[in-house]
Structure formats: C-alpha cells, structure tokens
C-alpha cells in the first residue's frame, strides 16, 4: 500500500536542477575570481579572497533564509560548492542560538560539518603519510 501512494522519484529532474544550481554557484565564484584577478593580486591571494567571499555569501544567504530556498530547489547542487559548507556551519548555529552562545551556538555549530572536518583532515593525514612513504622509494 505504501508503494502505491509513494510519489515517483524524479531523478532526472532532480539531477538537472542540482547540476544547474551547482553550476550557477560555481559560475558566480568564477565571475568573482575574474573580477578580483583584475586588481593585480597574486593568484594565491585571489583564490583565498574568492573563497572568503563565497563562504560569506553562503553564510549571509543562510542567515536571511534564501539559501534554504535555493537548496530546496537545487538539492545536492547547493551542497558541493564551498557555500554548502558555509551553510552547514551557519544553519545549526542559527537553530540553536536560543540555547545561548556557549551551549547553543558554540556547541552545536559543527554538528553537521564536524564529522566532515574530522574525516577530511584524518584522511588527508593518512594520504600524506602514504605519499611520503611512497616518495622514499
């Protein structure tokens, strides 16, 4: 009975939306990159500034409620770019701010992004050690 009333998945439509929303976010990042490159800064500084701007925009749009609407439409397309990481940090902080800054915001801020950071940093350390050992030979 549950299968009969369950809505049919729209995989192709969802993938298409995710592709275009993720692509739009990355295109905005490329426009910012091209604009900041015209200032004559070194490439490393330009990449850092673009990352900071994209993280800020993700946090700002999350704070005013727009990023969630974009995510409802674009699905996984909003998770992959760096703005998705910003959203993953800011959303729990906003949700738990009524519990106070220490036990709410500070304690819950990394509930979603924390495991990603732990496993990302841990796997990069392991890969670095393996790379070092392989480079000895």
TrEMBL record:
Keywords: Membrane, Transmembrane, Transmembrane helix. The keyword Membrane applies. It comes from the Bacteria. InterPro entries: Spore_V_AC, SpoVA. The chain crosses the membrane at residues 12-32, 48-67, 116-134. This is Stage V sporulation protein AC.
């Amino acid at each position: 009975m549950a299968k009969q009333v369950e809505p049919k998945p729209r995989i192709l439509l969802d993938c298409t939306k995710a592709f275009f929303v993720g692509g739009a976010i990355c295109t905005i990042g490329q426009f910012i990159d091209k604009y900041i490159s015209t200032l004559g800064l070194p490439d490393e500084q330009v990449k850092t500034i673009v990352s900071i701007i994209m993280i800020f925009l993700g946090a700002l749009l999350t704070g005013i409620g727009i990023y969630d609407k974009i995510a409802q439409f674009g699905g996984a397309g909003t998770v992959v770019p760096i703005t998705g990481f910003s959203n993953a940090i800011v959303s729990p902080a906003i949700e738990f701010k009524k519990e106070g800054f220490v036990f709410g915001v500070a304690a819950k801020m990394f509930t979603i992004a924390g495991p990603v950071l732990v496993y990302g940093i841990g796997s990069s350390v392991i890969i670095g050690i393996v790379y070092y050992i392989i480079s000895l030979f």
